[in-house]
Amino acid sequence: MSTPRSSILAFFVCALSAVLVFSPGCEPDPLRPGGGGPVLPGGGGGNPDGGGGNSDGGVLVVRGDGGSFAAKPSCPSGSACTGACPDGGVICAGNCGFLTPVQYAYAGDPKAIVLGDVDKDGDNDLVTANNDGKSVAVMLNLRNGNIRTPDLWTARREPSALALADFNEDGSLDMIVANNTGDTSIEVFRGQGNGDFQAPIVSGSIGLDLNDLVVDKFAGSEWSLALLRGGDRKLSVFPLKSDGTLETPADYESSAGAYAMVAADFNGDGRKDLAITHESACGTPSATACQSVGVLLGKTDGTFQPPVYTSTGGSPRGLVAAQLDTDTSMDLIVADASRNQVLVLRGQGNGRFYDAVAYPTVKAPSRVALADVNRDFVQDILVTSATGNQVGLLLGQSGGSFSSHVALTAWPQDVGLQGLSASDFDGDSQVDLAVLTRNGIQMLWGICR
């Protein structure tokens, strides 16, 4: 008797799912449509119209197995537990610290990580851009120390940056993805509020070297997409329509070494501005868009003034904006990769900054986050090593200064970290860290005594 076609198809579907998400089985998730395998064109990927395919007719999403990664380690009060602190313990930030990293392994060489409540259950979920895997991994937070194995949403090319925003204001987070190789493009996946997304709206032939993107309302009530195009030495700001399409952009001066950007109000006028790090070495003393932070102040019509540069030296990469002291000016924290330090730049309230204060940290710092790790109501700095396996923790002090760094072991291997995000993932009022590696995520669960 011959094997039925349906059985053969099911076998290959399960095999594909298991390979892509490193899952041991292929049992469908009864709580979500299509659990356990690829959703093909017309296969009902959660789209209101039943269409599950990409615009090119390929697979829209490869479902996870419906299970979860290894749970948060148990560390009863009073017990001596192993952790990520320099002495191998759990406490190294006042009365707080982190447990031993838990590995969330999946394929695809992830390059960027963002957090957002994509299923509207009140908890932050994890989303990563997987460069080699040509996909976006969506991992739902199950609370209580458990994270669901990923659904892999197909990207056209190699995604390099992404953002979450409810740009169509329907109450559900949408996913905006920059594809960086070959047929560069922006893909907009409109969210459905349950962790699923509609087939993407694709805007192609965007430019070269799409390094970073920000989605925000820069002036008034209109959404825009700001995109760093390093290969074209441009910052392009596209009006983003509610249907996911992009309008003609306004272009601004940038550089081939533009690395990352952040939106914040740097001059106190109530409008969002953009700060961009430029890591390329300066060829001449008069060069500006190099070894610096450039700030473009927002105008009332949603456009921007030409950039104003503050020299940093070194190799500025990741950055975050925050008010660190008691004045009203926005400050910047910048990772300086070539000098193994973090730079704190005090804002002058006009888009310029005072001379940086440097704090030594892990080797080749690349990505930065802020969080109140030790629960003293002061923001602390967390920074990843691009060449090592550590996260630097610098505890904030009153007045906006920081203590000497503590090196957290984020991954047993020494191959470089890609990024990080901080949140209270399990609702225990303690900061947890999701650290991105080339093989997935290392979760450092926070603990306080």
Entry keywords:
449 residues; Neuraminidase; 2 domains; 4-stranded antiparallel sheet; 1 helix; 4% helix
SSE blueprint and pairings:
Elements: H1 5-21, E1 38-39, E2 61-62, E3 96-98, E4 102-105, E5 110-116, E6 125-130, E7 135-139, E8 151-154, E9 159-165, E10 174-179, E11 185-189, E12 201-204, E13 210-216, E14 224-229, E15 234-239, E16 250-253, E17 258-264, E18 273-278, E19 292-296, E20 308-311, E21 316-322, E22 331-336, E23 341-345, E24 357-360, E25 365-371, E26 380-385, E27 390-394, E28 406-409, E29 419-423, E30 432-437, E31 440-444, E32 446-448
Antiparallel strand pairs: 1-2, 2-8, 3-32, 4-31, 5-6, 6-7, 7-8, 9-10, 10-11, 11-12, 13-14, 14-15, 15-16, 17-18, 18-19, 19-20, 21-22, 22-23, 23-24, 25-26, 26-27, 27-28, 29-30, 30-31
Describe this structure in words.
The chain has a six-stranded antiparallel sheet with strand order 1-2-8-7-6-5. A four-stranded antiparallel sheet has the order 4-31-30-29, with no helix packed on it. With 449 residues, it is mainly β. The protein has one helix and 32 strands.
Shape: globular
Summarize the main sheet.
Answer: 6 strands, antiparallel
Helix amount:
under 10%
| Largest sheet: spatial strand order | 1-2-8-7-6-5
Q: Helix tally? A: 1
The CATH architecture of the largest domain would be 6 Propeller
Average pLDDT taken over every residue: 88
Strand percentage: 35-45%
Number of domains as seen in the coordinates? 2
N→C terminal distance: 65 Å
Total count of strands? 32
SS-based structural class?
Answer: mainly beta
- The CATH class designation of the largest domain is Mainly Beta
Low-confidence stretches: 1-36, 38-52
What value does the Rg take, in angstroms? 22 Å
CATH superfamily of the largest domain: TolB, C-terminal domain
Topology-level CATH name of the largest domain: Neuraminidase
